[in-house]
Amino acid sequence: EESQEKFWDFVEANQNIEGEHDDQAYYELIVKRASALLSSVQLNMLKFALSLRAYSATVHSFQQIASTEPPPKGCSAFFSVHGEKTCDAESLATLLKTAQERPKPYLFKGDHKYSGSNPDAPVVILYAEFGKPDFQRLHQVVLSKVHEGSVTYVLRHYLANSSGKKVFLSGYGVELAIKSQEYKAKDDTQVQGVHTHGNTRLDEVQGFLFGKLKTLYPELKEQLKELRKHLVESTNEMAPLKVWQMQDLSFQTAARILAAPAVDALNVMKDLSQNFPTKARYTRNTHTGAFFKGTLGLQPGDSALFINGLHIDLDTQDIFRYSSWPYNVQELLRPTFPGVIRQIRKNFHNLVIILDPTQENALFQKLTWSLCFRIGLVFVVSDEDDIDGMQDAGVALVRAYNYISDEVDSQSAFESNETNHLYMFNRVPIGGQLSVGEVVKVLEKRFPYVEVSSVLGADSSYDSNRKEGRAYYEQTGVGPLPVVMYNGIPYQREQLDPDELETVTMQKILETTSFYQRAVYLGELATDHDVVDFIMNQPNVVPRINPRVLSTSRTYLDLSDTTVFLLLWLSDDGYIRPVTFWVVGDFDKPSGRQLLYDAIRHMKTSNNVRLGMINNPSDDLSAETSRVARAVWAAMQTQSANNAKNFITKLAKEDTAAALERGVDIGEFAVGGMDLSLFKSAYEGPKFDFLLSHAAYCRDVLKLKKGQRAVISNGRVSLLEAEEVFNQDDFLLLENIILKTSGERIKSKVQQFGIEEDRYFLLCQAPPDELLQSVLSLTQRFSQGHAVKIRPKEGDVYFDVVAVVDPVTRDAQKLAPLLSVLKQLVNVNLRVFMNCQSKLSEIPLKSFYRYVLEPEVVFQADGSFSPGPMAKFLDMPQAPLFTLNLNTPESWMVESVHTRYDLDNIYLEEVENIVAAEYELEHLLLEGHCFDVSSGQPPRGLQFTLGTESEPVIVDTIVMANLGYFQLKANPGAWILKLRKGRSEEIYKIYSHDGTDSPADSDDVVVVLNNFKSRIIKVKVQKKPDKFNEELLSDGTEENDTGFWKSLTRYSFTGGAKTEEPKQEKDDVINIFSVASGHLYERFLRIMMLSVLKNTKTPVKFWFLKNYLSPTFKEFIPHMAKEYGFQYELVQYKWPRWLHQQTEKQRIIWGYKILFLDVLFPLAVDKILFVDADQIVRTDLKDLRDFDLEGAPYGYTPFCESRREMDGYRFWKSGYWASHLAGRKYHISALYVVDLRRFRKIAAGDRLRGQYQGLSQDPNSLSNLDQDLPNNMIHQVPIKSLPQEWLWCETWCDDSSKKSAKTIDLCNNPMTKEPKLQAAVRIVAEWTDYDQEIKRLQTRVQAGKDFLLTHRGEKLLGEGATSYRSQIICQTFSDQTRL
Questions:
Q1: Which residues form the Glucosyltransferase 24 catalytic domain (predicted)?
Q2: Which end of the chain is more exposed for a tag (fewer CB within 10 A), N or C?
Q3: Residue 111: pLDDT above 60?
Q4: Rounded to the nearest 10 degrees, what angle do helices 641-651 and 590-603 cross at?
């Protein structure tokens, strides 16, 4: 990442790492060799990256790319030459001879290309493991070919025999949240077969090693247990607090932090915030001063983090996300803090630098900012044809830049490393000038095989844009070099101080943001718009900036003492024009004619301008010296305004003037409609009185020299120098200034008073307002006296870090460990300000939290890697019921892969051993947005596939209407994105793509995932010409059910021993969707499935949300599918980052029940039935699937109203719901049927997400998300009410209706709060039988596993393991938990 040169230097130093090394010795050797190439800060960042395993994804991506070659057998390292492979060094020459007959391979942005390679030569890709003998051998072979100039050398890391060891990750958070026990949802099944994984060593409480003690004294097990319980309870009591005790908890916690020594303050904040439920009682008696209650410029409780002034968004904190910003313009409207620069992947901020590279350029040499821009360079160099790059340093730089851009890319040509043009500047001392020699040295080092004279010399083909650069500079009129423009606004000369330029630019960014926000809010700027085009289409944008026009020093014409003379006017009759231009010049000279020509050309493009012409002759007047001037006067006197305008335009051209001088009759230039005879009579008249009056006026009133040019605009006089350019663009700029200041106001007054146009002069003598920019000042004030302050080390460069935080918020839980690690990595000037909330009415933090992050790799005493970064929760209180949640980077899709405990219901009083959980990073998420270029709208229902050349369809997805969003599950590697075969490919074609790894116009859309950062792409599609009127989601849609949904059969079982089975017709299968989290609800889910299978004759396919299923359930479900002969699939969907996030697990699960129905299932699934996990089915569900919904997209059962004693709990009978429903039923979400075809057709999913986005911002809204949302949308997305018999619930339905119930739902009872398990046994007679039947099957399955473990030594750990794991260890011996 630092530079390709340093990479290759590192490779050279580590060609063969000989000898045996343990993990630590190997690591230290590598770090030592890297230290020779990196600064101390860079070395720390390398250690941090290795600790994060940040490059593991890169290694894995190269492995995947190598597998597509595929590697030749028996080779630990090999060459690939245009698709032909060998590991025989002798064969390389043979393959090179025939290489040109085969197409060149595709090279990725992350590829390592040797800097001395010949870009025109064949490409040799070496796949090898760095540091191994085979690598050294083949590397030397290909290196010799590079020096001959015969190959382009690309190196990709490759392991022939991967160890298969799991890589433990960090960079994520773990929450142990205290769960409400209002309704008991805990399974009573005893956990069996728990293994401690050797973590008894963690069982330490106040210095007592209880794991060791229990081993030494097993007979004292119970006594030791009681001792531990006493010790834990004595230190971690969670005594309830009264309301008055909570009010100042935020201030009291802040006081505890600030009272600590500065060196310990972050650790104190970390301990208090991450363990707040047990620490609250220690802070409530802390004295706090009134100084905390002052304002910090933010709302109380808000948090913010600034590094070197750049705002870091804590809401999307992701240790891997350095550059993957959202690109949706709606992000501009998100609430944020004063002075924050929003990080959005759009070209909002454009910096153009115009400079002469041969001048002193201290400004350009210091261009190393932390701000993010789109930067453009314009080099102004000699445009003379006989000057080449061997003579002129400026020309040499331009040609070198063009050469590097063509041979590598423009990014490489610009980056500040030792082989590009920015480095050429950096080699020049401050105050010095660039020389040809500096350019030559850089080229010779980077491209040793190239003849420098062929690039820089007279015959160079790399001269593009040299003349255009100077022409652009002259055309813009921006003044002396260097020039810097932000979004087209030139900086003032005093703003170009290199030390102040970044500050000035940041201020401009903040000023411009409000302009963008307004445009987004009004709908003028949308996500699919090009921001640069939007900027360029603003009314105040002009193609040229003239300092004379913009000058604040202005002279106005005083006509009070002047005799009115005859002025030649050019305008249409009867229209009031607020801008008056007088053009003064000798129209018989080229300079005067050009000024006149540009003025008329501008007038033709504007309805605001009228034009007056004053001839200022250079010589004494005669017929020969006034041909054009007389013709102008005659046309104005005798012709209509339009004919005169067209004729004068012709006269102002140089070829016309030349012809007149040669004696060509002026009648030859007449335009259509002219009265030629009348014109000639005036033109050939003997008198020049009108021209003499013009000359006198120029001399006496305007004080002009003979022939001098001028432009007078609404009375403002601009005298032009002899060679000064004033063109059509300058007239446009002048018009804009007049209109913005006085022109429109005067026009309105003229219209109000009814003055005729030919009776007035529009003369404005008030100076104009600022047109191009406004100055706003934003300042943030922090109380400097009351903050955690950590000073930087003296004499070293440091990062300025400012954090604002309420210490009793989730932000504090995440921020404290992050700042602690940052402090260890780099030199910081750190200030943490406490932004507290007052008058709290409840405990602000109800969870324990750990952020897994280490500054460098950790080793054990024997030199091996430590078991891996992990979250440990020590000395947890015993009484609460906990639920475990992971907070991972946005692009991670993780699942729990190994734990026997119920992580949704961790009750430590009942735990005897270590509670350990391992999670696996199953997929990296590829996200995107898709739009139809013709309509500008997302192509709803369009499907994409992701795969490789050999396997084109591995996963697929459906495009939403919301922002055109789609997501695909992938792993590190190179992938090809295509339209899915079927209607998507028949109707659409890919038009362009952005953010991918292939050119925008490439047919193959290649995306390389080689890191853990979020990846978001943008795809534009277009309907094929013959499909323009067709729709994807028509009622006749038939989509071939192949692709990802078929590939999911690795999770699909049909019950027999056959590996393949003929596909059932979709009408013959009942698709049932359900969700569950926690062992109790998974137990209910298995019983619900059995009840369905016992009563339904039609084949059934279950769809389960995989996101929250336990390893136990996923391990058992294949056995159950085989036993009972059903199909199933596990589906996943990552909650989109742009959709309002829920933080409570139960609410997230509710969201998945309703928000993503249109994208969770393939288009081939016409109907889906949702059945709650805690339901018992007593009928054939085919009847529900075939129920006529009468055009509604879904059908729900209304809440029962027959149990009268529950009337007081029926919230929908009064207040908001009674008014909103207007007599309609309120429906329960435990059972519903969805017509997915109709659901997609009317965009129901998009409407539901849109309504959710608006309502969910209010924490008091959507309290029962999964059923409040569809009931709230009943007017926009209609609900068909199912007969009451389809769902019976004891809480709301009377006993008499139970006998006709087709399903029984175990609703919570707000009156009795009866535990769910107890209610199931009491209410449903068959429930216990079903439960016992499932348990007998589980016993048989476990017996089979035990047999395998005993007799074969094999252990089954589940399915689908990949190479990345994060680990959590929760250790408990009845009294204590460590996670």
A1: 1070-1337
A2: N
A3: yes
A4: 140
